[in-house]
Amino acid sequence: MRFTFEQLPEEVAKIHDKLDRISKLLSPKEISTEVPENNLLNIQQAAQYLSLAVNTIYSKVSRKEIPYIKKGKRLYFFKDQLADWVESGTSSNTSLIEAETETQFLAKHLRKARRLF
What we know:
Shape: elongated
Strand order of the largest sheet: 1-3-2
Helix content: 55-70%
Protein backbone atom coordinates (compact mmCIF):
# COMPACT_ATOMS: atom_id res chain seq x y z
CA MET A 1 0.00 0.00 0.00
CA ARG A 2 1.23 3.38 -0.90
CA PHE A 3 0.04 6.42 0.96
CA THR A 4 0.24 9.99 -0.12
CA PHE A 5 1.81 12.60 2.08
CA GLU A 6 -1.65 13.90 2.98
CA GLN A 7 -2.82 10.41 4.14
CA LEU A 8 0.15 9.82 6.44
CA PRO A 9 -1.19 11.65 9.54
CA GLU A 10 -4.45 9.71 9.35
CA GLU A 11 -2.65 6.36 8.97
CA VAL A 12 -0.27 7.17 11.83
CA ALA A 13 -3.28 7.94 14.05
CA LYS A 14 -4.83 4.55 13.15
CA ILE A 15 -1.57 2.77 13.97
CA HIS A 16 -1.37 4.67 17.25
CA ASP A 17 -4.94 3.61 18.19
CA LYS A 18 -4.20 -0.03 17.37
CA LEU A 19 -1.01 0.10 19.42
CA ASP A 20 -2.93 1.54 22.40
CA ARG A 21 -5.52 -1.28 22.21
CA ILE A 22 -2.78 -3.92 21.99
CA SER A 23 -0.89 -2.46 24.95
CA LYS A 24 -4.09 -2.43 27.04
CA LEU A 25 -4.69 -6.09 26.23
CA LEU A 26 -1.13 -7.07 27.09
CA SER A 27 -0.75 -4.99 30.23
CA PRO A 28 -1.48 -6.81 33.51
CA LYS A 29 -4.80 -6.11 35.07
CA GLU A 30 -4.78 -3.47 37.74
CA ILE A 31 -4.45 -4.93 41.18
CA SER A 32 -7.44 -4.22 43.32
CA THR A 33 -6.62 -1.94 46.22
CA GLU A 34 -9.49 -3.36 48.25
CA VAL A 35 -8.30 -5.26 51.25
CA PRO A 36 -10.35 -8.42 51.78
CA GLU A 37 -12.12 -8.75 55.09
CA ASN A 38 -9.73 -10.20 57.64
CA ASN A 39 -11.17 -13.63 58.25
CA LEU A 40 -8.68 -14.62 60.96
CA LEU A 41 -9.69 -13.91 64.56
CA ASN A 42 -7.74 -14.13 67.79
CA ILE A 43 -9.36 -15.61 70.89
CA GLN A 44 -10.74 -12.29 72.16
CA GLN A 45 -12.30 -11.51 68.78
CA ALA A 46 -13.70 -15.04 68.53
CA ALA A 47 -15.21 -14.74 72.01
CA GLN A 48 -16.81 -11.44 71.07
CA TYR A 49 -18.02 -12.84 67.72
CA LEU A 50 -19.63 -15.85 69.42
CA SER A 51 -20.81 -13.88 72.47
CA LEU A 52 -18.97 -16.27 74.77
CA ALA A 53 -16.42 -15.76 77.52
CA VAL A 54 -12.75 -16.29 76.69
CA ASN A 55 -12.59 -19.09 79.27
CA THR A 56 -15.50 -20.83 77.54
CA ILE A 57 -13.62 -20.66 74.25
CA TYR A 58 -10.54 -22.17 75.92
CA SER A 59 -12.62 -25.03 77.35
CA LYS A 60 -14.24 -25.72 73.96
CA VAL A 61 -10.79 -25.76 72.35
CA SER A 62 -9.46 -28.20 74.95
CA ARG A 63 -12.42 -30.52 74.31
CA LYS A 64 -11.96 -30.01 70.53
CA GLU A 65 -15.55 -28.84 70.17
CA ILE A 66 -14.70 -25.76 68.14
CA PRO A 67 -12.53 -25.39 65.01
CA TYR A 68 -9.25 -23.61 65.76
CA ILE A 69 -5.64 -23.15 64.68
CA LYS A 70 -2.79 -23.12 67.15
CA LYS A 71 0.45 -21.35 66.25
CA GLY A 72 2.88 -21.51 69.12
CA LYS A 73 1.03 -20.37 72.20
CA ARG A 74 -1.63 -18.47 70.28
CA LEU A 75 -5.05 -19.63 69.15
CA TYR A 76 -6.65 -18.39 65.94
CA PHE A 77 -10.07 -18.94 64.44
CA PHE A 78 -11.49 -18.45 60.96
CA LYS A 79 -14.70 -16.45 61.03
CA ASP A 80 -16.40 -18.57 58.36
CA GLN A 81 -15.50 -21.81 60.18
CA LEU A 82 -16.96 -20.42 63.40
CA ALA A 83 -20.14 -19.46 61.55
CA ASP A 84 -20.37 -22.98 60.09
CA TRP A 85 -19.78 -24.46 63.54
CA VAL A 86 -22.61 -22.37 65.02
CA GLU A 87 -24.94 -23.26 62.14
CA SER A 88 -24.19 -26.96 62.42
CA GLY A 89 -25.23 -26.98 66.06
CA THR A 90 -24.22 -29.73 68.43
CA SER A 91 -25.89 -32.65 66.69
CA SER A 92 -22.69 -33.90 65.05
CA ASN A 93 -20.70 -33.48 68.26
CA THR A 94 -23.41 -35.24 70.24
CA SER A 95 -23.50 -38.18 67.84
CA LEU A 96 -19.72 -38.51 68.03
CA ILE A 97 -19.80 -38.43 71.82
CA GLU A 98 -22.61 -41.00 71.91
CA ALA A 99 -20.71 -43.34 69.58
CA GLU A 100 -17.55 -43.02 71.65
CA THR A 101 -19.46 -43.62 74.88
CA GLU A 102 -21.11 -46.71 73.43
CA THR A 103 -17.74 -48.07 72.29
CA GLN A 104 -16.22 -47.52 75.72
CA PHE A 105 -19.24 -49.06 77.43
CA LEU A 106 -19.11 -52.18 75.27
CA ALA A 107 -15.36 -52.53 75.71
CA LYS A 108 -15.68 -52.28 79.48
CA HIS A 109 -18.49 -54.83 79.69
CA LEU A 110 -16.74 -57.24 77.33
CA ARG A 111 -13.69 -57.16 79.61
CA LYS A 112 -15.91 -57.94 82.60
CA ALA A 113 -17.64 -60.74 80.68
CA ARG A 114 -14.29 -62.31 79.77
CA ARG A 115 -13.26 -62.34 83.44
CA LEU A 116 -16.34 -64.36 84.36
CA PHE A 117 -15.53 -67.16 81.92
